Each structure stands twice: as C-alpha cells, then as structure tokens.
Amino acid sequence: MTILVVEDEIKIVRFIKKGLEMEHYTVEAAYDGEEALAKAEVNNYDLIILDVMLPKLDGITVCQRLRAAKVETPIIILTARDTVDDRIKGLDAGADDYLQKPFAFGELVARIRALLRREKTVKATKLQLADLILDPATHEIRRGGKEIRLSSKEYRLLDYMMRRPGQVCTRTMIGEHIWGYNFTEDSNVIDVYISYLRRKVDQGFANKLIHTIRDVGYKIQDKSPAKNFPRPERKNYPN
C-alpha cells in the first residue's frame, strides 16, 4: 500500500513516514499543494494524508481539485484547527476523514486502516509481471508459485518498480522514494538493494525481470519472447 503524505513541516513528514514504514506502508511525500496535485494526478496512491495549511495551494483547494479531476483516492485531512466549520469545509471538499493536530500516531494508523478496508477493490488488486506476483494486501510475493521473502526496503523497492512496469526508474526517483532525505547521489545503496532483489527474484529463472539502464537507473520488464507454437503438420491428401 502506498500513501502520499502532503505536509510542509519536514519534522512531521519524517515522523509520519517513519511510523508508517514500520507498519509496512510505502510512503511518498509532497511539501506544497502544487507538488501534491502533480503527484496525485499521475501516481496511483492508496491513500493521501493532506495538511490544510500548505504553501502555493492550501489543502482544501488541493482536495477539491483532485475530486474534480476524478481522483477517488481516500483522503485524510490534517489541521491544527478543529472548529465545526473547518470540518465541514474539509468534508465538503471531498475528504473522507479529518484529524486534528497534534494527534496520536496510533489513531492515525487506525483511521488509515478503516479507510483502506473500504477500498476492497484496491486491496484485492495484485501486481503481476510474467510469473512474479505481489499482493499489496498481504505483502506476499511469489514467483513461479514459490514464495519470496523480502526485507521492508526490498519490498518497497519491488512494489515501487512493479507499479511502473517497463518504465525507467532513475536512481534519483528510487532514492527519494525509498530513502527520502537520507539519500545521497554518490551512495551505492540502490545498487546494493537491486543486487539483493535480483538474487531473490531473478536467480534461477531464465527470464530476468530486473534490468539495468546504464547511467540512468533500472526498470522491471518482461522481455521474454512470445511463445512460438509449432505450426500444425501439413498433410498431403490424394486428389
């Protein structure tokens, strides 16, 4: 499950991101309203946590524009204000839930779970490429019917790439998504984790799914040739 956190206070983003990752969610961040719109209209998130007070575009406007663009992703609005009028504005804008700051992290997680339970069709959708299957609901990964066990970061990396089959994932994209502000361009941590994934996902299979794009990044793609079925034997019948 991938969650977009939209919040301009870096400390709050780090707090939410760290906690949700411990709950096995994949987390992306946006720090202003315009960035949130750009990401939410392009990427397929399972849930959005949206602060009201944002630079460039406020959270209420972001919520309204997403709903106008037919983005139906569940939205939890965060705000330091908790008047009845504020709650009404948020819910009327299309939000699914409302949480006042400061909040207990356990309550946020409980609200996330409640909203995601409503999204049964989203949770039931499995990601599949060739014979590799990833189930976001259970975090189960199988290839050729055999279960694959991954660490938290390995899972998040595979989930990120499988949601973008055939698309080049640059080192910057991967680094910012998985490691956030801790990622530095000169680090080899991405290469190390790609190596871990290859060993667990591709080793022992003739059809390799994880591919290197030299000097750019990586992509996951099924490059196996289409099966060539033999033509039926031609028989010569007597005239």
Automatic annotation (TrEMBL):
Domain OmpR/PhoB-type: residue ranges: 124-222
DNA-binding region, residues: 124-222
Residues covered by the Response regulatory domain: 2-116
One Gene Ontology molecular-function label: transcription cis-regulatory region binding
Modified residues (4-aspartylphosphate): 51
PROSITE patterns referenced in this protein's UniProt entry, alphabetically: OMPR_PHOB, RESPONSE_REGULATORY
GO terms of biological process kind: regulation of DNA-templated transcription
Any one of the GO CC terms: cytosol
Alphabetized InterPro entries for the sequence: CheY-like_superfamily, OmpR/PhoB-type_DNA-bd, Sig_transdc_resp-reg_receiver, WalR-like, WH-like_DNA-bd_sf
SUPFAM superfamilies assigned: CheY-like (SSF52172)
Keywords assigned: DNA-binding, Phosphoprotein, Transcription, Transcription regulation, Two-component regulatory system
PANTHER family membership: REGULATOR OF RPOS (PTHR48111)
Protein name: DNA-binding response regulator
